[in-house]
């Protein structure tokens, strides 16, 4: 059984706001391996994922890729550009599978929202929660170093993709150590070493197909001084 069912973005807003978003949208297909948008590009649209999966990332000042989210059906992406003068995308969205999104023009959505104060307030409140999620991820990287970033990433993946098994929590998604490293802004070699150390300490284990089982979640939390944020904040989605 799953540890917790993470609510998708569309489930966290009212039916009225969800209807507004879908009513002014148009569909667009994106092939796996293609970018829906890239950091630094002019931004005039936000997107509601209809099918598929996207990896949301940002380049660090030294040119490393930092993965921030994995977004799926019912998630909203590109949202940080709304109500901004001359907006640019702050992040990049790469399709991990053949996908379809609903495209929502910023100016049209802003026009509709400004006619309804309640919906505007609701959208800004939802957006603030997204910013809080980003802030906590960056905090984990800055305050806890590479090891803390890995531990935080394991906790977040456990919350998002965790399935209870006999000896712990199975992270039920296939990720290479290189992909894990990009969520920690670390090298594959350092992630390999840290995962080996955790396995020797019986904190984690791995399945035959390479998935990670977290056997001692409390150890990871204690090591980074976890504040036990709500699961809506502490996840990888």
From TrEMBL:
<dbReference type="InterPro" id="IPR036388">
    <property type="entry name" value="WH-like_DNA-bd_sf"/>
</dbReference>
<dbReference type="InterPro" id="IPR018490">
    <property type="entry name" value="cNMP-bd_dom_sf"/>
</dbReference>
<keyword id="KW-0804">Transcription</keyword>
<dbReference type="InterPro" id="IPR000595">
    <property type="entry name" value="cNMP-bd_dom"/>
</dbReference>
<keyword id="KW-0238">DNA-binding</keyword>
<feature type="domain" description="Cyclic nucleotide-binding">
    <location>
        <begin position="11"/>
        <end position="119"/>
    </location>
</feature>
<dbReference type="InterPro" id="IPR036390">
    <property type="entry name" value="WH_DNA-bd_sf"/>
</dbReference>
<dbReference type="InterPro" id="IPR014710">
    <property type="entry name" value="RmlC-like_jellyroll"/>
</dbReference>
<feature type="domain" description="HTH crp-type">
    <location>
        <begin position="144"/>
        <end position="218"/>
    </location>
</feature>
<protein>
    <submittedName>
        <fullName>Crp/Fnr family transcriptional regulator</fullName>
    </submittedName>
</protein>
<dbReference type="InterPro" id="IPR012318">
    <property type="entry name" value="HTH_CRP"/>
</dbReference>
<dbReference type="Pfam" id="PF13545">
    <property type="entry name" value="HTH_Crp_2"/>
</dbReference>
<dbReference type="InterPro" id="IPR050397">
    <property type="entry name" value="Env_Response_Regulators"/>
</dbReference>
<dbReference type="Pfam" id="PF00027">
    <property type="entry name" value="cNMP_binding"/>
</dbReference>
<keyword id="KW-0805">Transcription regulation</keyword>
<keyword id="KW-0010">Activator</keyword>
């Amino acid at each position: 059984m799953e540890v917790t069912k993470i609510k998708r973005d569309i489930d966290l807003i009212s039916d009225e706001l969800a209807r507004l978003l879908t009513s002014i949208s148009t569909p667009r297909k994106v092939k796996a391996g293609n970018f829906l948008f890239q950091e630094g590009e002019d931004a005039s649209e936000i997107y509601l994922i209809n099918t598929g999966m996207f990896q949301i990332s940002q380049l660090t000042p030294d040119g490393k890729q930092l993965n921030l989210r994995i977004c799926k059906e019912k998630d909203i992406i590109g949202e940080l550009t709304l109500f901004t003068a001359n907006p640019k995308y702050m992040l990049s969205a790469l399709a991990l599978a053949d996908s379809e999104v609903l495209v929502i023009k910023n100016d049209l959505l802003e026009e509709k929202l400004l006619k309804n104060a309640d919906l505007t307030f609701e959208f800004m409140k939802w957006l603030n929660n997204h910013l809080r999620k980003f802030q906590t991820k960056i905090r984990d990287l800055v305050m806890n170093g590479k090891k803390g970033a890995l531990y935080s990433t394991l906790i977040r993946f456990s919350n998002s993709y965790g399935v209870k098994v006999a000896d712990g929590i199975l992270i039920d998604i296939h990720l290479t150590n290189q992909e894990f490293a990009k969520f920690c802004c670390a090298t594959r070699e350092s992630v390999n070493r840290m995962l080996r150390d955790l396995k020797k300490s019986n904190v984690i284990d791995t399945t035959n197909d390479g998935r990670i089982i977290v056997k001692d979640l409390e150890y990871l939390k204690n090591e980074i001084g976890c504040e036990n944020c709500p699961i809506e904040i502490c996840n990888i989605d």
